[in-house]
């Protein structure tokens, strides 16, 4: 396991002014609690999501194991109507499936043309976008994309980093998040923006001996929490809920 870097700070009722003055300049991850996210926190049940977004076709990741690895591609891409996908993602065992009855699902929304269009929940899922209020901690012109994600419970995504500041908004369920300081990138065995180290809790130290030097931040997100992730901070998302 990597070296602990300390707990992720938690803040309640953060105003835009406080975020800009006291939190953002530190360039450290922070959990923001008590933010008004709109009606999504009460509305977004399996029934509501499937009925509201309907039969729109979505491209999803399907894996027979809970740890998805982007580098080895231990998953396949499949297409399902959104309502069918949401119900399957909420199941532990499936009566209908692609590979196995306990397969895991992951949706990361894309633009209509993934090569040109950015992910924007307001365009891809307008009926659901009405329910969510994205925290306005930055100017509107600084806003780049809003990626809508849903996963099966217990799914783990690959370790990766993003080149922009992010807000991870947890609407329903719970999520365990592990992050690494950008200064420790030399210890993460990166291939492009992805790390070769998949099992961060029990890494193969014979294969990845430098990984022990990487300092990790860890936090648990509850429904309604918002995690600020500074750009370039390597992160791995361990989902323990519906989204």
UniProtKB/TrEMBL annotation:
tRNA processing keyword on record: yes
Cofactor: Fe(2+)
UniProt keyword annotation of Metal-binding present: yes
Domain of life: Eukaryota
SUPFAM superfamilies the record matches: Clavaminate synthase-like
Keywords: Dioxygenase, Iron, Metal-binding, Oxidoreductase, tRNA processing
EC code: 1.14.11.42
Substrates-to-products reaction catalysed: 7-[(3S)-3-amino-3-carboxypropyl]wyosine(37) in tRNA(Phe) + 2-oxoglutarate + O2 = 7-(2-hydroxy-3-amino-3-carboxypropyl)wyosine(37) in tRNA(Phe) + succinate + CO2
Limits of the JmjC domain: 123-243
GO biological process, one term: wybutosine biosynthetic process
Functional description taken from the UniProt entry: tRNA hydroxylase that acts as a component of the wybutosine biosynthesis pathway. Wybutosine is a hyper modified guanosine with a tricyclic base found at the 3'-position adjacent to the anticodon of eukaryotic phenylalanine tRNA. Catalyzes the hydroxylation of 7-(a-amino-a-carboxypropyl)wyosine (yW-72) into undermodified hydroxywybutosine (OHyW*). OHyW* being further transformed into hydroxywybutosine (OHyW) by LCMT2/TYW4. OHyW is a derivative of wybutosine found in higher eukaryotes.
Protein name in UniProt: tRNA wybutosine-synthesizing protein 5
Protein source organism: Mauremys mutica (yellowpond turtle)
């Amino acid at each position: 396991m990597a070296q602990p870097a300390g707990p992720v700070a938690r803040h309640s009722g953060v105003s835009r002014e406080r975020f800009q003055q006291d939190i953002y300049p530190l360039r450290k991850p922070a959990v923001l609690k008590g933010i008004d996210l709109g009606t999504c926190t009460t509305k977004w049940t399996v029934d509501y999501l499937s009925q509201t977004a309907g039969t729109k076709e979505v491209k999803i990741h399907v894996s027979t194991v809970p740890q998805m690895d982007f580098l080895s591609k231990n998953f396949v891409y499949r297409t399902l109507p959104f309502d069918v996908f949401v119900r399957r993602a909420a199941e532990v065992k499936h009566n209908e499936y692609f590979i196995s009855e306990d397969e895991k699902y992951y949706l990361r929304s894309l633009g209509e043309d993934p090569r040109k269009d950015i992910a924007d929940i307001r365009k891809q899922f307008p009926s659901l976008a009405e329910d969510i209020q994205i925290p306005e901690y930055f100017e509107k012109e600084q806003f780049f994309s809003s990626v809508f994600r849903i996963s099966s419970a217990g799914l783990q995504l690959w370790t990766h980093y993003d080149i922009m500041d992010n807000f991870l908004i947890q609407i329903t369920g719970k999520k365990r998040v592990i992050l690494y300081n950008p200064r420790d990138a030399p210890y993460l065995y990166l291939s492009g923006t992805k790390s070769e180290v998949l099992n961060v809790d029990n890494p193969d130290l014979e294969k990845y001996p430098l990984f022990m030097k990487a300092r990790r931040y860890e936090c648990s997100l509850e429904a309604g929490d918002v995690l600020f992730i500074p750009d370039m901070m390597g992160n791995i998302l361990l989902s323990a809920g519906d989204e």
